[in-house]
Amino acid sequence: MATSPYTPKGKGATVVKEVVDTINSLGIFANDHKFLCRVAWVESKYGEAPGTYRSGYHGGIWQVELFRLFSICTSYNNISFWPLSLQTCSLKSVANFSDQK
Question: What are the residue boundaries of the structural domains of the chain, listed by start?
Fold first, then answer.
């Protein structure tokens, strides 16, 4: 059964591609040279690796830890230099990430 980026615990190359395409459409990265796809593969084999969705951990396909995401998104030294679209997107991500628990 196919999953989508909006399916809880979604996995697979299609999910990764849709998420990366969405991020790229926002113009946040000019060309990431498939960096986000490679991170997803290394961290969780596109969500297919055992333990990707282990109990008590909500890092998902990219294995993002909430405290790391929050520290990056709220760091005064970092966020003030980011483009406004990325600042808004990042802060929304923290809120959405918390809602996924």
Answer: 1-63, 65-101
